[in-house]
Amino acid sequence: MGNTESVAVQKRLARFQPEERPEVEGVFDRLQAGAGGPSGAAGTTLTLEMLQGSVGRVAPDSMVRRVYQCMCNIGLGEAASLAPGTSPTSAASGVGVVREQLVIFLADTLRGTAEERAPLVLTMIQPGAGAAKCHQVAEFVEDLISSVVQILVQSGRLQGWQPERMGDMSSGVKLLAEQMCSELKATDNGECDLSCLEDWIFRTSQVSLYLEMLVSEGLNVSLGGRVVPTLLPPCRETHWNELSSLLDIPTLMFLAPQLPDGVGAPWRLLFSTGLHGESFTRMMAGLLNHGPTLLLIKDTKGHVFGGFASHGWEIKPQFQGDSRCFLFSVFPTLRVYSTTGYNEHFMYLNHNQQTMPNGLGMGGQHGYFGLWLDSDFGRGHSRARPKCTTYGSPQLSAEEDFSLDSVEVWAVGKPPVPDDDEGGVGKRSILDMDPEALAIIEMTGKTVHSQGLREPEDD
After folding, report:
1. Is the pLDDT higher at 82 or at 33?
2. Could you tell me which of 81, 94, 74, 92 has the C-alpha nearest to residue 194?
3. By the 8 A CB rule, do 208 and 201 touch?
4. Which CATH code for domain 3-77+95-219?
């Protein structure tokens, strides 16, 4: 590439492996050739129309214009940095993007640090300014998320999910953008300057991930050894023709990475009120013996929330689970609430007992759960004054005591291996048949002498 002789460009190219450099250097010629321009002609530039022909396939026009204005504002000196508040160089003053600017843009977006990406992001948000307003950052993030969703749809990376049978995509985009922007630490006057954006990009990994995905897909940059992010978990065994899911694609993009390592099985719908009716017994059948699950609830006021259970549910009067469990909200805000360490009241499921609460609960304590569904179905509560002790979550439902609109249960991990397949000891005991009796015995401090005496397994 004869034109890229500047020190800045050579430093950027050094970030790529020798076999990757021809791919990076060839993007400029491919974009021109794709637009019918003179491939390889010296002194030529990329126009907005050329970029729209490539990036416009996978991104809204507002995002394409952001990318173009960013490229145009890249300086060509040795530092080759974007100086917010200054005018672009003469080579970039409205006459198009030159080859060197494109190479610098590719290197900083695909292989740059948070410090190097922050000026690019600021220029995409607000060119020629030293800071941006928080609402401008949110608009940029919405464009970025919309681009990623469009890429997933058009490239066939939906992993079995069907957006037309899921929640409102545009609402999900806004909620995910708000969640990402909630990590911003704006200045006292409510602005986001370069240092604010650098800190945000460093702490919020989705910004860099989504930007890399946009640039790679939009400019068709295929680097050797690059792992294409899937972003969505696989979905299997789901009857989409009859389903209207509470999930949407941006919400999945947020929730899936929150699951702990080792929980990576394809998601499978186990229960939906829309498919299986309003039955606590039927919901329990979906929860039991299916390993880790994700519970989604919508109340009649429109709030959507739920919880992740790290273990398969068991019917018993004791709390269960571990610190990998969490509660979350989907609407009106997208948030995850992890365990606080205050207690171990992670999961609770009981049914048909006389003296213990009957229903499903997560966090808090009896009568005061962070999330509770009554076994009578149709009713529940989310009590947090001011926070749930187990998860630190606020009230998730619109009202403390809520009426149920719909519920979904998704299996998200591998189901447990049955005991008889593991050669385990049989569990058929009078103590297992009446767990409430066992709980009362344990609370009185009595020794359970028959705990180890169990009926032998059938041959």
Report:
1. 33
2. 81
3. yes
4. 1.10.238.10
Which helix (H) or strand (E) covers residue 320, if one does?
strand 316-320
424 exposure class (CB count in 10 Å sphere: 0-12, 13-18, 19+): exposed
418 — pLDDT class (breaks 50, 70, 90)? low
Report helix angle 205-218 to 99-111, nearest 10. Answer: 140
Mean pLDDT of 183-204: 93
| Helix (H/G/I), strand (E/B), else coil: 361 | strand
Token pair, residue 332, equals 């009106």
Band the pLDDT of 5: cuts 50, 70, 90.
low
Where are the alpha helices (H) located in 302-443, listed in sequence order?
419-422, 430-433, 435-443
Q: What is the DSSP string of 439-459?
A: HHHHHTT---TTTT--PPPP-
CA dihedral in degrees (55, 60, 63, 67; nearest 10)? 20
51 has a pLDDT exceeding 60:
yes
Q: Quick count: other Cβ atoms within 10 Å of Cβ 411?
A: 23
In the chain, domain spans = 3-77+95-219, 259-411
Taking Cα atoms as reference points, which of 384, 386, 345, 393 lies closest to residue 366? 345
pTM for this structure? Answer: 0.85
Q: What is the pLDDT of residue 454?
A: 42
β-pair partners for 298: 304, 406
110: number of Cβ within 10 Å? 22
Half-sphere exposure of 69 (CA within 13 A, CB side): 18
Question: Please, is 444 exposed, middle or buried when counting C-beta atoms within 10 Å of its C-beta (0-12, 13-18, 19+)?
Answer: exposed
Give the Cβ contact number of residue 379 at 10 Å. Answer: 14
Whole-angstrom Cα distance, residue 197 to residue 428? 59
pLDDT, tens digit, 9 for 90 and up, residues 446-457: 555 444 444 444
Q: What 8-state DSSP symbol labels residue 46?
A: B
Neighbouring residues of 413: CB distance < 8 A, sequence distance ≥ 6: 262, 263, 264, 265, 291, 292, 293
Q: Write the CB contacts of 5 (distance below 8 Å, at least 6 apart in sequence).
A: none
